[in-house]
TrEMBL record, chain A:
It comes from the Eukaryota. Belongs to the ALG6/ALG8 glucosyltransferase family. Its main location: endoplasmic reticulum. This is Alpha-1,3-glucosyltransferase. Signal peptide: none annotated. Pathway: Protein modification; protein glycosylation. Pfam families: Alg6_Alg8. The lineage of its organism: Eukaryota, Metazoa, Chordata, Craniata, Vertebrata.
TrEMBL record, chain B:
It holds the Pfam family Alg6_Alg8. Pathway: Protein modification; protein glycosylation. It catalyses: an alpha-D-Man-(1->2)-alpha-D-Man-(1->2)-alpha-D-Man-(1->3)-[alpha-D-Man-(1->2)-alpha-D-Man-(1->3)-[alpha-D-Man-(1->2)-alpha-D-Man-(1->6)]-alpha-D-Man-(1->6)]-beta-D-Man-(1->4)-beta-D-GlcNAc-(1->4)-alpha-D-GlcNAc-diphospho-di-trans,poly-cis-dolichol + a di-trans,poly-cis-dolichyl beta-D-glucosyl phosphate = an alpha-D-Glc-(1->3)-alpha-D-Man-(1->2)-alpha-D-Man-(1->2)-alpha-D-Man-(1->3)-[alpha-D-Man-(1->2)-alpha-D-Man-(1->3)-[alpha-D-Man-(1->2)-alpha-D-Man-(1->6)]-alpha-D-Man-(1->6)]-beta-D-Man-(1->4)-beta-D-GlcNAc-(1->4)-alpha-D-GlcNAc-diphospho-di-trans,poly-cis-dolichol + a di-trans,poly-cis-dolichyl phosphate + H(+). One of its GO terms (cellular component) is endoplasmic reticulum membrane. Keywords: Endoplasmic reticulum, Glycosyltransferase, Membrane, Signal, Transferase, Transmembrane, Transmembrane helix. This is Alpha-1,3-glucosyltransferase. It comes from Cyprinus carpio. The chain crosses the membrane at residues 110-132, 144-161, 173-197, 229-250, 323-341, 348-369, 375-393, 405-428, 440-459.
Length: 529, 475
């Protein structure tokens, strides 16, 4: 069982941090927003104006509804408040409508929805094993709060680029916290709700499934941690099943007649292997290895739009996407099925591990991060925003273990840097650099101080790799645009960024796996359930 | 966590808020024919780049002084010239003589905002960091908290990055001057302050304390001997700096006179916005503007200002130490209704009062900011600053009382009054008979506060309440 961290008398620092970051978010209201802004405005409009039966058929705008029904209901709820800001935004035909009131409302809705995230972070702080620190700045709960609340990726994806990830990750972290607190039914319920809000979390469903089956449905383990078959509790399994099924039926129930249509909207496989900006995963490295891509690159086609008109951008969101057929020339072409197989193969060892030797809630969390990373590494049409699904839960582990802190530093710094191409406007350049430095300096120094016993946190090779990001940024954003190659090979900096970061992400993935497969036996001190 | 990382986090937070505020509108955006301060700065780049030096301050066919003529000292002009060179590299259209009037574009705005950020990073922020590091008492935590509060002060951020000005340059140079004096480097301090003075003539407000402090110090060292030698060195530094700054204008006796005429437009009357507080408030009761002649108004304001700063300056002259110096700066600038940032950590109540004072001053700028379309940054930054300073103060004083009881009730009353006034200024329509009701109310409220402050701070400086022996080495 997990010990709750001793409750301190003065929790006002949490409130101060939350308020501070909210103020910062308010200042960013006027910043650049991507096409995702129009996506959500469109969804506000169509959920407000049309009956539910037509939500998944509506196609006036190119940004069709491709999140599960619960999110549609969330937008529906928001639209009722939107009425008081600007009625025009709720008209479906008002494509690309972005009056100041609209912008204010949408931005505020993200900021307010982050309250869920704040609550979840507070709950996660309670789950830390020990929370002693000489002063406030050295306490694990303080460090974790800052790493989560002021997470660079979340700030720029949610509050500049525009999405609702804070709210969704709040639900995820809350579900994880509930599992730590042994409130498994609530955790399962929250996760089912999450799946019905955004189905990308299917990537980590295997971790949930195996963990709950192994640690919750089998109520006891043997002394050495292995499975005790006789302790299987049908009651628990059935209850879990009921929770999940009822959530799904509440969500999909009204759309049961149009299920094929809904599913085709949710899983549009007609998209290409790589998103417009290559996520720094295996396929980025694969593409580089394939000689043809350096020259005949449909990547160039997509990036070409960037030069023409800001409005004609390739869609940098989970929705939409251009039909791309990637034909590799030297290496075999990759199909969606192949990526699925690769993904499953990459996470299988982790799943076996927690089935075989579960490590309580922490093992589950580690497996969850590996599932998220694995699907990021090998998935089909992965967006680099998905790296947040690995970084945020990993923060919890990072403040408790030295090795995890190390992996977290590498993953978060490279992962966050790979988000830079999302904000390509000159106006946002200082903001992203300042915020990146802010988060990086804080995470480096606080984790270094937390684990100061035992030498340096990063070895020289890792430190050099991370420092290499500075010249990379200078070249890609300052030097390269002034050279003559900018016109002929405009995609080169983006490619460089993806490939360089892919190395870091892969390295973190491997290290995380090693730590999962090797560490669990040393944790006999922690009683499994 | 180490000090350097904490300080860099403060700096990064300050820089982020600055740049985020710069996304919003600027003074005179989209408002032909005159536009606003932003256009004035752009125009000065145009003038200094295209015209020879001897024409900068004169009314010629190429230089229409009625359209934002130069009215800051030469250093501002040189700064504009340097910016103009950069602008020419990026896009010559920005400084095209005559043709670039009223030029507005997204990339130009980015350029102008970037110039402010650049000088801020170069001059102001290092001064703040050094000041907090060397001249703040208290633990390193308190130093960092002070730095954070200063860097997040909304007034400077909104005026420089919203409305558009380069106050960070003159204030930064003045702060370097204070630093110099504090560290005992009188020559460096005088040099820095003279540069500040040559950047914006408003720094005259701080000049009397500098003068009195240095003179008093020299007198203390004995006017026949070391003191005299020191005085000579300082005077020489100041004169040489002035000469260097004004060199292009010294060839022809008409030049400096014209420059002075531009800097101190007594012909227009001394009722600029900055001084509007007192007179605006008084004007409500007695119509001074119409009642008295212009010369009388001038004399009156001059006399009153002198009256208010004389006691504090004389005290400083007699007792030239750093504490007196800081207080004299406060009093002197208060006497001119301009803010002078000092963070006194000696008595926390004083610090609280100063935070409050800064906040009141910021609030008095509300009408200006609303006109510039900067309402949102105003609300966010003032709330953040208020909350942050209150929070940090309450935590660093280690009192056990809840914050509410720590401050006297009129503090909370004032805050509520300011909040209500801000709210009504924006959301309510003023009655037709008094269309300027809300800006006037803001001015009156601020004026009353300032009056209270100046009386209080004068009392503090003159009476010198008991100070703890452990603090402050006298200089």
């Amino acid at each position: 069982t997990v010990m709750a961290a001793p409750v301190t008398n003065d929790q006002s620092w949490f409130f101060a941090l939350a308020l501070g970051v909210s103020f910062l978010k308010c200042l960013l209201i006027n910043a650049y927003h991507s096409t995702d802004f129009e996506v959500h405005r469109n969804w506000l409009a169509l959920t407000h104006s049309l009956p539910a039966a037509q939500w998944y058929y509506e196609a006036t705008s190119e940004w069709t509804l491709d999140y599960p029904p619960l999110f549609a209901w969330f937008e529906y709820g928001l639209s009722h408040i939107a009425r008081f800001f600007d009625k025009e935004m709720l008209v479906v035909q008002n494509l690309n409508y972005a009056s100041p009131a609209t912008i204010l409302f949408q931005r505020l809705s993200v900021i307010v929805a982050d309250v869920v995230f704040f609550y979840a972070v507070k709950e996660c702080c309670k789950c830390l094993r020990e929370d002693k620190g000489k002063d406030l700045l050295g306490k694990p709960s303080f460090i974790l709060t800052v790493l989560l609340l002021w997470n660079f990726g979340l700030l720029i994806v949610d509050h500049i680029h525009f999405q609702y990830n804070g709210f969704l990750f709040g639900v995820l972290l809350l579900s994880i916290a509930r599992h730590f607190q042994n409130r498994h039914f609530e955790g399962a319920l929250l996760f089912s709700i999450l799946l019905n809000l955004k189905h990308i979390y299917l990537y980590i469903a295997p971790a949930y499934g195996i963990y709950l089956l192994r640690c919750f449905c089998f109520t006891q383990s043997n002394a050495d941690g292995s499975l005790q078959w006789r302790s299987f509790s049908v009651v628990r399994l059935v209850t879990l099943g009921t929770i999940v099924l009822s959530t799904f039926s509440v969500s999909f129930g009204p759309f049961i007649g149009q299920l094929p249509q809904v599913l085709s909207r949710l899983f549009p496989f007609k998209r290409g292997l790589c998103h417009a900006y290559w996520a720094p995963n295996i396929w980025a490295l694969y593409n580089i290895a394939d000689k043809n891509h350096l020259i005949v690159c449909s990547y160039y086609e997509r990036v070409k739009f960037k030069l023409l008109d800001i409005n004609k951008l390739p869609k940098a969101s989970m929705t939409g996407g251009l039909v791309q057929e990637f034909q590799h020339s030297v290496l075999p072409s990759v199909s969606p099925l192949a990526t699925l197989i690769c993904t499953v193969l990459s996470i299988l060892p982790a799943l076996f591990r927690i089935w075989h030797r579960p490590n309580g809630a922490r093992g589950f969390l580690r497996c969850l991060v590996i599932c998220a990373l694995g699907s990021f590494m090998f998935g089909w049409h992965v967006h680099e925003k998905a790296i947040l699904m690995a970084i945020l839960p990993l923060s919890l582990l990072a403040v408790e273990s030295r090795e995890d802190a190390r992996i977290f530093l590498i993953l978060s710094i490279t992962g966050h840097y790979s988000l830079f191409p999302l904000l390509f406007t000159t106006q946002e350049l200082p903001i992203k650099i300042f915020l990146m430095l802010l988060f990086t300096i804080f995470s480096l120094t606080s984790l270094k101080t937390l684990f100061r016993k035992g030498g340096a946190l990063l070895n020289p090779l890792e430190a050099t790799y991370l420092l290499g990001l500075i010249p990379l940024e200078l070249i890609c954003e300052f030097v390269y645009p002034l050279t003559v190659w900018q016109k002929t090979f405009p995609f080169l900096p983006l490619m460089l960024t993806s490939v360089y970061c892919a190395l870091g992400v892969t390295y973190a993935f491997i290290r995380l796996y090693i730590s999962l497969l090797t560490c669990s036996d040393s944790t006999k001190k922690i009683k499994t359930q | 966590m180490e000090n350097w990382s904490l300080f860099s986090l403060c700096v990064l937070l300050g820089l982020t808020s600055r740049w985020a505020v710069s996304f919003h509108s600027y003074s005179g955006a989209g408002k032909p024919p005159m536009f606003g301060d932003y256009e004035a700065q752009r125009h000065w780049q145009e003038v200094t780049y295209n015209l020879p030096v001897h024409e900068w301050y004169f009314n010629t066919t190429n230089n229409d002084l009625n359209y934002w003529g130069l009215d800051y000292p030469p250093l501002t002009a040189y700064h504009s010239l340097v910016c103009a060179y950069v602008a020419k590299l990026l896009n010559p259209e920005w400084v095209e003589l005559h043709a670039s009037r009223g030029y507005e574009s997204h990339s130009h705005k980015l350029f102008m905002r970037a110039t402010v950020l650049f000088t801020d990073i170069l001059i102001y922020i290092p001064a703040v960091l050094l000041y907090c590091f060397y001249f703040c008492d208290g633990s390193s935590k308190q130093k960092v908290a002070t730095a954070l509060c200063i860097l997040l002060y909304p007034g400077l951020i909104l005026i420089d990055y919203g409305h558009f000005q380069y106050n960070s340059v003159s204030l930064g140079l003045a702060l370097w001057g204070i630093l110099g004096l504090g560290l005992g480097w009188d020559l460096f301090g005088s040099l820095a302050f003279t540069l500040a003075l040559n950047y914006k003539q408003m720094e005259l407000y701080h000049s009397l304390p500098f003068f009195c402090y240095l003179l008093g110090k020299c007198i203390k060292q004995g006017l026949t001997g070391r003191g005299f030698f020191q005085l000579a060195k300082i005077s020489l530094t100041v004169l040489v700096t002035f000469a260097l700054c004004w060199m292009p204008f010294l060839s022809d006796p008409k030049q400096p006179l014209q420059v002075l005429h531009r800097l101190f437009p007594f012909g227009r009357g001394l009722f600029e916005d900055k001084v509007a507080n007192t007179w605006c408030s008084l004007n409500v009761l007695i119509k001074i503007k119409t009642l008295l002649s212009r010369e009388t108004q001038l004399f009156l304001s001059f006399a009153l200002t002198l009256l208010f700063i004389l006691p504090s300056s004389l005290k400083l002259l007699s007792k030239p130490n750093l504490w007196q110096f800081k207080l004299a700066l406060v009093n002197s600038s208060l006497a001119f209704f301009l803010f002078s940032f000092q963070v006194h950590e000696k008595s926390i109540l004083l610090a609280a009062l100063l935070m409050f004072f800064l906040f009141v001053f910021f609030h008095s700028m509300l009408p200006l900011l609303v006109k510039d379309g900067l309402l949102l940054p105003y609300v966010v930054t003032s709330l953040a600053f208020l909350f942050l300073s209150l929070y940090l103060l309450s935590h660093l004083t280690r009192t056990n009382e809840p914050l509410f009881w720590y401050f006297p009730f009129h503090f909370w009353f004032s805050l509520v009054a300011m909040a209500v006034l801000s709210f009504t200024s924006v959301w309510l329509e003023p009655p037709a008979k008094f269309p300027d009701l809300f800006p006037v109310l803001v001015s009156i409220l601020s004026f009353l506060h300032f009056l209270g402050f100046i009386i209080y701070f004068n009392l503090v400086q003159l009476m010198e309440p008991q100070r703890k022996k452990s603090q402050k080495k006298t200089n």
